[in-house]
């Protein structure tokens, strides 16, 4: 123990003895107030220790994780969690749980009934599979008594039922053979629907040079000022904005933000619109003038996102269906510019 630590302990002990003496001498006057102060003092000492703070943070994080698991228990399929973590490039995958499971019928099979989601015009169904843990589903037959082909995916077995789902009118039934029952740990039979997004062609964007040429600016040359508009970090914690009520994974992500000022002339990387160029020129021409309200009549062009990128999410949609989307659109700032 070094001298400074020894001195600190002596001072701390002296302070404690003095506090106890003051408390005992006045306990008949204000016992409740001093009891409260004593409790606050006792709590303040361990809170100042970094190791205690670290343990408290770990406990809080663990409780939050357990709460999240309890919230989604019985909803989140283990297969869907694996799909998210291995970052499958399938556009959209929905996992449907059966709305009804019958008891064994004459040939020992069980009937699984699924309610299909409404058709989205921007999506095309590619594959539909009835999936279960390997060994739990041995055979799947359609209403036509046609057997379905299957594939293995690690510890899972998937039966191709695309034809039956495609011609279904909203409800589809399967005769399933094997050990099909209630699985509370997220490994029960699910109907996987894999979709591809409809790609729409976008009109090619004109270059900055073409836009500036159309302006044909005849004004005097201006001193070039450095544009500070650029992309900066912004981490989004879904729990902070209550998105963790429907987003299963991830707990948060780097969304980025745009900040800074826009000055004329603009750099090519800022891809300004014609309106942004005109607005910035007018703002400069009216520099120093004020309107009747005391403010400037025309503001400067703003630094905003000009291109957004998607991110992968595992979430519950409006109907409560567990959905994996490889490209959840417009979530990440990819480029910043002046508008």
TrEMBL record:
<keyword id="KW-0964">Secreted</keyword>
<dbReference type="GO" id="GO:0005125">
    <property type="term" value="F:cytokine activity"/>
</dbReference>
<comment type="similarity">
    <text>Belongs to the TGF-beta family.</text>
</comment>
<dbReference type="InterPro" id="IPR017948">
    <property type="entry name" value="TGFb_CS"/>
</dbReference>
<dbReference type="InterPro" id="IPR015615">
    <property type="entry name" value="TGF-beta-rel"/>
</dbReference>
<keyword id="KW-0732">Signal</keyword>
<feature type="region of interest" description="Disordered">
    <location>
        <begin position="204"/>
        <end position="226"/>
    </location>
</feature>
<keyword id="KW-0339">Growth factor</keyword>
<dbReference type="InterPro" id="IPR029034">
    <property type="entry name" value="Cystine-knot_cytokine"/>
</dbReference>
<keyword id="KW-1015">Disulfide bond</keyword>
<dbReference type="GO" id="GO:0005615">
    <property type="term" value="C:extracellular space"/>
</dbReference>
<dbReference type="Pfam" id="PF00019">
    <property type="entry name" value="TGF_beta"/>
</dbReference>
<dbReference type="InterPro" id="IPR001839">
    <property type="entry name" value="TGF-b_C"/>
</dbReference>
<dbReference type="GO" id="GO:0008083">
    <property type="term" value="F:growth factor activity"/>
</dbReference>
<keyword id="KW-0325">Glycoprotein</keyword>
<protein>
    <submittedName>
        <fullName>Growth/differentiation factor 2</fullName>
    </submittedName>
</protein>
<feature type="domain" description="TGF-beta family profile">
    <location>
        <begin position="203"/>
        <end position="339"/>
    </location>
</feature>
């Amino acid at each position: 123990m070094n001298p400074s630590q020894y001195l600190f302990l002596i001072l701390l002990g002296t302070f404690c003895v003095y506090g106890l003496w003051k408390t005992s001498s006045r306990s008949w006057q204000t016992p409740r107030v001093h009891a409260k102060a004593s409790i606050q003092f006792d709590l303040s000492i361990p809170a100042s220790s970094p190791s205690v703070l670290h343990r408290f943070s770990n406990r809080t994080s663990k409780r939050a994780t357990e709460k999240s698991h309890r919230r989604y228990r019985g909803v989140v399929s283990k297969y869907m969690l694996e799909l998210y973590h291995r970052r499958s490039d399938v556009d959209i995958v929905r996992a449907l749980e059966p709305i009804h499971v019958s008891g064994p019928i004459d040939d020992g099979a069980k009937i699984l009934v699924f309610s299909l989601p409404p058709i989205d015009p921007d999506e095309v169904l590619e594959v539909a599979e009835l999936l279960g843990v390997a060994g739990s589903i041995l055979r799947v037959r359609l209403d036509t008594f046609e057997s379905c082909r299957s594939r293995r995916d690690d510890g899972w077995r998937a039966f191709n039922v695309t034809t039956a789902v495609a011609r279904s009118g909203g409800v589809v039934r399967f005769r399933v053979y094997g050990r099909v029952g209630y699985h509370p740990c997220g490994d029960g039979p699910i109907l996987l629907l894999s979709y591809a997004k409809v790609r729409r062609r976008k009109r090619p964007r004109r270059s900055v040079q073409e836009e500036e040429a159309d302006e044909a600016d005849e004004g005097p040359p201006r001193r070039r000022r450095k544009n500070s508009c650029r992309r900066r970090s912004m981490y989004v914690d879904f729990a902070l904005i209550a998105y963790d009520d429907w987003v299963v994974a991830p707990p948060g992500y780097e969304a980025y933000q745009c900040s800074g000022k826009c000055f004329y002339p603009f750099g090519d990387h800022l891809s300004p619109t014609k309106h942004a160029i005109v607005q910035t020129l007018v703002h400069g021409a009216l520099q120093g003038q004020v309107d009747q309200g005391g403010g400037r009549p025309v503001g400067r062009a703003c630094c905003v996102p000009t291109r957004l990128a998607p991110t992968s999410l595992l979430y519950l949609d409006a109907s409560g269906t567990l959905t994996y989307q490889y490209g959840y659109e417009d979530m990440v700032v990819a480029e910043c510019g002046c508008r």
